[in-house]
Amino acid sequence: MESFNHITVLERRLVDCMAIKPNDIAIDCTAGGGGHTALMLEAAEPSGRILAIDRDPHAINAIKSRFGHFISQGRLIACHGKFSSINEFASNSHVTGKVQGICADLGFSSPQVDNSERGFAFSHDGPLDMRMDPSSGCPTAESIVNEADEADLSRIFRDLGEEPKAKAMARAIVKARSSKAIVTTKQLADLASRVLVYGTKSKTHPATRIFQALRIKVNNELGELEDLLDKAMSLLQPGGRLAIISFHSLEDRLVKSRFREWSGLGPDLLPRDIPLTNIEIDSMRQTCGSIIKPFPYIPDEEECRANPRARSAKLRVIEKLTQ
Predict the structure, then answer these.
(1) How many domains are contained in the chain?
(2) How would residue 274 be classed by pLDDT, with cut points 50, 70 and 90?
């Protein structure tokens, strides 16, 4: 049995929020180690079906090993690929428009972080890879660091890492790689420690935002999330729910904005001087969902103590309207 040990964040809360009932159909867009998948299978007993999607081949192999019995029963379908392909997976399984719950946990998993060969973390020295799917053929973090020009690097660190000293870091990388290619996580982390010096003491490693930006860029994480948001609601049945756990402000901002738009709370694009009543304006908005809770669910203190990586998690849930 392939191991993919990961502590699932907001495990019970997320599945409860999806309101899965016996015999329902649901989709886990980020199956990982199967923590949420297992609870979804339990909630959908005795004959409900779950689609488990993950772009990491190690995760999918672990899912197949752990849930082989459910796969043989036809209750679980393991899908290797990006969750932006959710339409294809749903169509192939004949569940479009019949899904009660769709969830995505956007954090990367412990096996990815803790395996130095994956290159996700500066706490372990390894190759600068950062691909969720090493077989995908997409550019690695190493290729971006050594081939992108200074302006592009600065833009990546500013827009995807929200790094205040993005220009300084980009300049330092270009200078350093002119004499020796930057190929390991330690090289990049050490360079960040020398360049990104702030006056106030912080427990956050100087390389944190740089590694986040590169990981997002390598895996097109924000583009993948936008694709999921574009497609998910059409797969849900009326009353079905979409639940997403995000871990940084860029992701949460996208989810929050789209949920508000679906619930009719988004920015008003109509000119102020158009003579319409509030009822008429509301009818023109394409409201298709209802936000379950105005503020995101977050892990409690006990969960954060047990799993410090859960600290920044935010869970938002929206329900598709029945009309």
Answers:
(1) 2
(2) low
Q: Is 280 contained in some domain?
A: yes
Q: 7 phi and psi, to 5 degrees? A: -85, 115
Could you tell me which residues come within 8 angstroms of residue 143 by beta carbon, excluding any fewer than 6 positions away? none
pLDDT in tens, 95-107: 999 999 999 999 8
**CA within 13 Å, CB half, 211:** 28
- Of 199, 219, 239, which one is at a domain's C-terminal end? 219
In a domain, 263, yes or no: yes
How far is 307 from 223, CA to CA, in rounded Å?
28
Alpha carbons 45 and 29: distance in angstroms, whole number: 20
Q: Cα angle at 210 between 120 and 35, to 5 degrees?
A: 40
Q: Which residue has the tokens 């990815």?
A: 112
Give the domain CATH number at 312: 3.40.50.150
Do residues 255 and 233 lie in contact, with contact meaning Cβ atoms separated by under 8 Å? no
**pLDDT 10s digits, 72-118:** 999 999 999 999 999 999 999 999 999 999 999 998 766 666 677 78
Q: Which of 219, 253, 274 is the last residue of a domain?
A: 219
CA 93 – CA 96 distance, rounded (Å): 8
Q: Is residue 271, in this structure, part of any structural domain at all?
A: yes
Indicate whether 76 and 93 sit together in one domain. yes
The rounded distance, in Å, linking the Cα atoms of 250 and 143 is 24
pLDDT at residue 179 is higher than 80: yes
| 105: helix, strand or coil | strand
Alpha-carbon gap, residue 258 to 27, rounded angstroms: 19
